Amino acid sequence: MRQSAPSVLRRSIIGILSAILFVTCGLACVQPQAVAAGSQTTTSENDKHGQVLSLSEATAVVTDTSGYHLKATITNTSDRQWNAGRLSLTVNSGYTFTSRTDMQEWAQAQNMIPTPNEIGTVQVQPLSPGQSTTVGIDAKADNDALKSIIAWGPKPLLADYSHDDEDVVLHSFLTRSAAGLNTIQTPAMRITMVAPLASGHWQTSNDTLTSMVKERVETTSDTIKGTAGGANTAKTGGKDGSEAVMLSAGHTRFDRSLNDVLTKHSALQTVADPTYLDALSMPPRVSALMQPAAFDITSYAARNDAQSYENAGVGSGMWNTDAAVARYRNAIGNSKAKASTIAWQGKGHWTAQALTEARSQGYITVISTADFESDDSDTVRTGTSVVSTDAGDVTVLVEQRELSKLAQGTATSRKARAESSEAGRLARFVAQSAFYQMEQPYTERNLLVNFGFNASASTLDSFMSAVESSNWLETTDLATLAKATPQTSDDETTSHAPTESGISKSKTAALDATITTLTASRSAIVRFRDGIMTGGSDEARQAWIDRILTAQSTMALHAFSSDGSDTASSAAMVSASQQLSNNLLNSISLAPSETITMVSETATMPVTVSNGTPFSVKVNISSITDSSEIATSRRTSITVPAHSEAQATFRLRAATSSSATATITLEDRSGIAFGQPQQTAISCILKISDMTGFIIIGAAVALGLLGLWRQFHRKKDPDE
C-alpha cells in the first residue's frame, strides 16, 4: 500500500533523529576510553625522540601529616615550539588494586582507571625544541584528594601534561600508609634489604710489577708460610705479592656518603668482599663476607675443571671461607675476629653443582637471584630455600624478583614509563610491597631485596628511608632470614632449582680465553723458577719467586670476579699478569752484538748476557747461521750473577769468503727458547794462512821470476 508524502517525510525525520541519538550515545559511551587512547597516542608521538614527562621526586609514603610532594621534568623532544601548558596530578582515592596484573596494566597504561580526585596543578612555561624544565606540585595534608583516602594501600596516580591541545600522561602510584586511618592493623610483613660491598676500581702498578722482578725481598723471622692456589702467601717484609693489585687513587678511603648511609640505616645488610675491606684504610661495618674478590663460583662449577683454575693461578684455597675470614682479620687488624660468610651469585645460576662447590668450600648460605622463585606463584613467599647437596645442606636466600629489579634500577617493564626514573621506581616499589602485604596480611613472610653491585649511596638512602616509613614492613637481618621457615617443600625447591648454568656462549668463550692467557703467564713464572734460576734452597730466593707467584695469583683471582665489573676490569688483570711474566723473562737478555768480520777460516763470536734480577741464573745460549758457508758452534751454557753480565764465546768457521747472519737465542735449561733473540751479521774475507797457501805463493813467485828472466834473455826480432 502506498504511503502519503507527509507520512514518508515524518518517518525520514524520525530515522535521522534516531541515528543522531544513537551516534551521540555511542560517543558518550566510548568517550573516556577514546580520550585515554588519544592521550596514550600523543604520549607515544611525543616520546619518539625521548621521554617528555618523567618523575624527579615523589613522596614515597603518604601519611596523615606528610602531604604529597612531586617534581616532574618536562622536555620538549619535538622540533617545534611548545606553548605554555599545565601539569595536573590526580588520584583515585577510593580504588583498590585487585591483582598484580591490575597494577602492572595500570603502570603500562593498559587499563583506564579514572582518577577524579585532583591533588594539584601547576603552570608550565613555553618550551623550545630540546628545552627542559622542572615543575613541582605540593599538597598539604588537608588536601581534599588526600583526605578522601580512607583505606591504606596503593592508589592509581596520573600525571597529565597538556599543551597545544595535546596530552602526555604518566601512570604511577600513590601509597597511603595506615597512619591516621581508622583501619584494622595487620601484622607487618618482614623484609630484608641487602647490598654487596665491593669495588670496580682495582688496578695494578707498572712500577710495582717492575720492582718485584728487580728487587730482592728481605725475609723476616716471623715469615708465615702457606700455600693458596699453588702460590706461597708468606708475609715477607710486608710484601707478599698481593700488593700488586690495589685500589686506584681516591678509592682507598671508604666513601663518606655511603658510610653515612650505613650509619643512618642500621637495618641495611651488607655482604662485603674481604679483599676490598683489606684494601681500605678504614673498613666499614659489615653484616657478612662474600668470597674473596667476589670469585665467580657459578662459572667455576659450570666449567667443572678445577685444575684449569689451578693452572691459571687460582686454587680453592684463595676463595673459600677460610680465605675470606683471613682477609677480613687482616683488614681490621684482629687475628681472632669472626664473621659469617655468604657466597654471592656469579654470572650463572646456582645449579646443584654450583651449590655443591660452594658448600664444599665452607659456604652454608648463598645469595641468589630470583632463580628459585616460581613464576606461577599466586603470592610472594619467604625468600629462603634449603637445598640438599652432596656436600651438605645449603640455605639459599632468594631475592624477590619485582622488588629487587626496582631496587637495582630496572623498570618492571619497558612500557612502565614512570619507572624510567628512580622516583618512579621507588613509588612502584612502595606500592608493590604494600600490595604484597595486602594479598596475604596474616601470612608470615620475609622477603629479600637485593640492591646489586651498582646502587649509589643516594639510592640506598631513598629506598631504606621509604621502607622504614612503611608501617606495613618490618626490616630484619640476614641471620633472621636464613633461619626463617622455607615456604616451599623439598620437592618444590628441587623443581625450582636451575638445571643449567645459563652462562652465554660469549661469556664462556671469554672465560676460556682468560684461563688460557693466565695459564701461560703462570707457566712462564714457574718455568723461570725451575729452569732458569739456579738452586732453590735459599730462603730469600724462595721468598722472591713466591712473591711474584702470589702477585700473579692475586691478579688472576680478580680476573675471575663476579662483582658486576665490566669486562675491561678482568682484561686489565689478565694484561697485568702477562706483563709480570714478560718482565721476569725479559730481565734475562742478550746484549746487541756488533758486526763480525772474519779474515781467516776460524774466528770467535762473543755473546753478552745480562741479568736484571737479584739472583743468579743459568741459561743456555743457542746460535745458528743462515748460511752453509759459515758455521757456528750450536749451544753453550752460562751462569750470570745477580744484577750483572757474563760473556760466552761461540766458534765460527768459514769455508769461503761470504756473509751470513747468526741468530742467537736464550733457552732455559730444558732447551725451550725465551726472551728476545738477537741477530749478528758476519762477513768473511778469506786470507791464506796455512802450508798450502805458502806453496801456492811460492809457485806464484817462481813463475813471476821465470817470466822476468825470459823477458830479459829472449832474442829480439830484427824489426824491434
Essential attributes:
720 residues, alpha/beta, Immunoglobulin-like, TIM Barrel, five-stranded parallel β-sheet, five-stranded mixed β-sheet, disordered N terminus
- Can you tell me the CATH class of the largest domain? Alpha Beta
Number of helices: 19
Task: Label the CATH architecture of the largest domain.
Answer: Alpha-Beta Barrel
Note the main sheet: 5 strands, parallel
In what range is the share of β-strand residues?
15-25%
What is the CA-based Rg, rounded?
Answer: 41 Å
CATH topology heading of the largest domain: TIM Barrel
Low-confidence segments, given as residue ranges, are 1-46, 221-237
Number of DSSP E strands:
29
**CA-based shape:** elongated
Number of structural domains: 4
Give the overall average pLDDT.
Answer: 87
- Quaternary structure: single chain
What structural category characterises the helix and strand content? alpha/beta
Helix content: 25-40%
Distance between the termini: 166 Å
Summarize the structure.
The protein is built from 19 helices and 29 strands. It is an alpha/beta fold. The relative contact order is 0.10.
Q: What's the structural blueprint in terms of helices and strands?
A:
Elements: H1 5-46, E1 53-58, E2 68-75, E3 85-91, H2 100-107, E4 117-124, E5 132-139, H3 144-147, E6 153-163, E7 166-176, E8 189-197, E9 202-204, H4 206-214, E10 227-228, E11 231-232, E12 245-247, H5 256-264, E13 269-272, H6 274-279, E14 288-289, H7 297-303, H8 306-312, H9 321-332, E15 343-344, H10 352-360, E16 365-368, E17 384-389, E18 392-398, H11 401-407, H12 422-439, E19 446-450, H13 457-469, E20 473-475, H14 478-483, H15 490-496, H16 505-531, H17 539-559, H18 567-586, E21 588-590, E22 596-598, E23 602-611, E24 617-625, E25 630-632, E26 635-640, E27 644-654, E28 659-667, E29 673-684, H19 691-713
Parallel strand pairs: 8-13, 8-19, 8-20, 13-14, 15-16, 16-18, 22-29
Antiparallel strand pairs: 1-2, 2-5, 3-4, 3-6, 6-7, 9-12, 10-11, 17-18, 21-23, 23-27, 24-26, 24-28, 25-27, 28-29
Helix pairs in contact: 4-18, 5-13, 7-10, 8-16, 11-12, 12-13, 16-17, 16-18, 17-18
